[in-house]
Automatic annotation (TrEMBL):
<keyword id="KW-0378">Hydrolase</keyword>
<dbReference type="InterPro" id="IPR052016">
    <property type="entry name" value="Bact_Sigma-Reg"/>
</dbReference>
<dbReference type="InterPro" id="IPR001932">
    <property type="entry name" value="PPM-type_phosphatase-like_dom"/>
</dbReference>
<feature type="domain" description="PPM-type phosphatase">
    <location>
        <begin position="169"/>
        <end position="384"/>
    </location>
</feature>
<dbReference type="GO" id="GO:0004722">
    <property type="term" value="F:protein serine/threonine phosphatase activity"/>
</dbReference>
<dbReference type="Pfam" id="PF07228">
    <property type="entry name" value="SpoIIE"/>
</dbReference>
<protein>
    <submittedName>
        <fullName>PP2C family protein-serine/threonine phosphatase</fullName>
        <ecNumber>3.1.3.16</ecNumber>
    </submittedName>
</protein>
<dbReference type="InterPro" id="IPR036457">
    <property type="entry name" value="PPM-type-like_dom_sf"/>
</dbReference>
């Protein structure tokens, strides 16, 4: 058995809470590593938090302007020779299907480091990412490592509802983010990809706190239930509408944008039932996609919903923003609006989709200035590549 296979087997046999211990021992034994550190990105995507037995024992590292952050942002290994010249530290991105989880830092004696080790050790990091994803079913260790602060209960409910923060396949790449990360209310996004289709939904539940989180959880799970039963997009909206109305009798509603992409042709079905809005960057032009506005879910009993259609082309970038983005006022009271969003979409055109939501929300924070964010702000970005 070669050393790469030995490390893989050790990780797959490890207890869920012992992945870092196992990978550390394996890297020391098979590669001569003298130090191994695993850091995961926090919910706000601003810092990398150490995975350790006692949470918060080690100071976080900022993603911006740090060696670990460089590997995380570029999604490439970053080699840093130690000043004393006796060791080399390599920071490896830990990513699973496009979802950027964190960074594994491995320090090797200078005489044990060769460039040909990097692809092999990156593969180990990919295996580690898969195992962390599976282990989160049975342990809180990695979830705790993502927290730079305590989450509100509403935020806990919303983050647990998400499928992830990014997803990548040959046909598309997408990423999404929520702010304020540690106290979100009713905004959410969801996706599911099959062999032939991608379904993407962006949701904005009315209200604040637990009530908003409960409302959004009901709507998202109703849409998932309908999707998994094989129902079409319009029927998914109808079933969720009925579920919300049955529970709240019209006193609460959920705004939602539902999109279903045909992975082979680029045809998109859409149901626009509320406030999330869609923009498209095609070439050098940004356009607000005009969709037929239908009633938010849960306002009335048995509301009919209809699909409309549009086409995406390879190279298109789509951006979805909640009303907490485009309605955010500046200190002078002027709303962020479509013009500023168009500028932000153009300015971030060279960034990969998982980085775009955070960049737009940082620009939104600068625009807002000292004015506090009084609503959730959600951004989802999708690049369409088309089927090879």
């Amino acid at each position: 058995m070669d050393r790469l296979t030995a490390v893989e087997h050790a990780l797959r046999a490890a207890m869920p809470n012992a992945l870092l211990d196992i990978v550390t021992v394996a890297l020391m034994e098979h590669y001569g590593a003298v130090r191994v550190e695993l850091r995961l990105a926090d919910y706000s995507m601003r810092s990398l938090q150490a995975v350790e037995t006692v949470p918060f024992s080690t100071e976080p590292v900022l993603i911006h302007n740090s060696p670990q952050g460089r590997a995380f942002g570029a999604q490439e290994p970053h080699v840093v020779p130690d000043p004393d010249g006796h060791a080399v530290t390599v920071h490896f991105p830990v990513t699973i299907r496009g979802d950027r989880m964190g960074v594994l830092s491995v320090t090797l004696p200078e005489d044990r480091f060769v460039q040909t080790l990097i692809p092999e050790m990156q593969h180990i990091c990919d295996v580690l990412g898969h195992e962390i994803l599976v282990a989160e079913r049975d342990t809180d260790q990695y979830v705790l490592a993502r927290r730079a602060a305590r989450l509100t209960l509403a935020a806990e409910m919303q983050w647990q509802l998400l499928p992830g923060r990014a997803c990548s396949r040959p046909e598309f790449s997408l990423g999404g983010h929520l702010e304020p990360a540690y106290s979100i209310f009713g905004d959410n996004f969801d996706w599911s990809a099959s062999a032939d289709h991608l379904t993407l939904t962006v949701t904005n539940g009315m209200g604040e706190g637990i009530q908003a989180a409960l409302l959004t959880n009901l709507a998202v799970n109703a849409m998932r239930n309908a999707r998994r039963a094989g129902l079409g997009l319009a029927d998914q909206a109808r079933l969720a509408d009925q579920a919300v109305y049955a529970q709240y009798h019209g006193t609460a509603h959920v705004s939602v944008l539902l999109l279903r992409f045909d992975l082979a042709t680029g045809e998109v079905q859409a149901v626009d039932a509320g406030s999330p809005r869609l923009w498209r960057l095609r070439g050098n032009h940004v356009d607000a996609m005009s969709l037929d506005a239908q009633l938010p879910l849960g306002m009335f009993e048995d509301t009919p919903y209809e699909c409309e259609y549009f086409q995406v082309q390879p190279g298109d970038r789509l951006l979805i923003g909640s009303d907490g983005v485009y309605d955010t006022p500046s200190s002078a009271g002027e709303k962020y609006g479509e013009r500023a969003l168009a500028r932000a979409l153009t300015a971030t055109r060279l960034l990969p989709p998982p980085q775009v939501p955070g960049a737009v929300l940082r620009e939104l924070a600068a625009y807002r200035g000292e004015t506090p964010l009084d609503d959730d702000a959600l951004v989802v970005c999708l690049d369409w590549n088309g089927r090879p």
